[in-house]
Each structure stands twice: as C-alpha cells, then as structure tokens.
Amino acid sequence: MCTAIISVDPASPVPVLLAGVRDEFVARAWEPPGRHWPDRPGLLGGRDLRAGGTWLAVDPGAPRVAVVLNGRGRAAPEAGRVSRGELPLRVAADGKLGLPDLAAFDPFHLVGAEPDRVRLWSWDGAALTERDLGPGLHMIVNSGLEGEGQLEGETEDAYMAARLAHFRPLLAAAPRPEPSPGDPVERAWGAWLPLVNGAGLPRADHRALLPLLDLGDGRVWGTTSVSLVALGRTGVRYDFSATPGDGRAWTRVR
Fold it and tell me: Domains in the chain, please, with CATH?
C-alpha cells in the first residue's frame, strides 16, 4: 500500500514536490539513501538488499526523481522475472523509461519527475500507459492515480480509498511548501511535515498514511521509510525518515 504524493506548480521556484511512502514487510533488509550503484554513480537512493534496486532514486545533477509502486494485473513469469527496483534507477539516470522487456516485470506505477515535466507510467502485465501529470496535487496508490483502479470488496482497496479520502483534502488545504537548501526540515516542508508524519492517526487506523499491520506468523507489514524530494530549477532537496511518524527522525540526504 505504498503512496506517492506529487505537487506540480510551474510558477513556483520549486515546481515539483514529491513525498514517497514505502510500505513493505518490515523484516525486508535495506540500506538508507546513498550512492549505492557504481554503474550509476550520480544517483542517490535507498537500496533494497534482496534485489539490489530501489523504490526511489534521485539524480541531483539533473535534477530528477523517480519512484515506483506496485501495480495491479498479471504477474510476470517466475522464470526471467526482473525486480521493479531497477525501474527508478533507469528513469532517474536517463529521464525516460526506454524499452525494457516489460513482460519481465510485475505490474507497477512509475513516476519520473523533472522541474518542467512529471510523467506516470502504469503497467498491468498486458499494456503500458503513459500520462503527464499537470499542475495540481496528485496521489498515487497501488490501485492507481487517485485510486482509479479500485476494486469493490477488496480490503486493501478499501484501506487505500480511506487513505485518499482522509489525506487528500488535508494536503490540498495545506500551504504548499517551497523548500530552500539551507532550511531545517521543519521550515522547509512546513504544513506538509505533520501530514507525512501521519497527522496523528494510529498506525493501525484504516485511514493511516503510515500503516503498521501484524499479519500473524511473525509477519509485519507497514511503512518502513518516507522520502521528501523538492525539485527546483537548479537543484534538489532530499529529506528522509527511516522512523515513520517520528518528527525528530528526519535526516537531510541532499
């Protein structure tokens, strides 16, 4: 139940803001953001230790950011399956998806953002769609942009719909931040920060942006990190929290 929140304002000195909420089994090992990929030395991002890729990658020099979410549809064949963690690396480095063998990837939603353009690719195992995200606020969850692929009767979809219904109006009403490089995180992200810290909801609440759910048999699923990225005309700001919900846990990556 990952979430990406994107605000686009071409007239702002910081045209693109992105919040990336990563939900995963908490036991899955990962490393915090760094320059983990020798073949792509310009990229910053957290590294998944199982597959070696990432959920969010930043190229400060471009500037550019890419984030991937699981999608819905037909899974890739087990033989030859490629991790979706390769996709943000590809888009952050090249500025485009290119022509990978999409049949080797499970369904996904992939955002690639630069100061003057934000694109969303969605793959359902059979067809790829591409669209531009124009000015305004956009929220993407596993069921798609604004939950457009929601299925009736699915518990996970009901949780995502509740998340969108609760947080979208809060984000829309909040003053849009304009992060500056030298600002502390509280000043940089302003009214967004308490919202991406969970807005005070218990993590087991069905509306929670930062869920934490005990699935039994030692399996715990929930938000394992939150990223905040601002793309200005000449640079990028990247803040990261490995302790979701703790307002004191933010670190400056870039």
Answer: 3-252 (3.60.60.10)
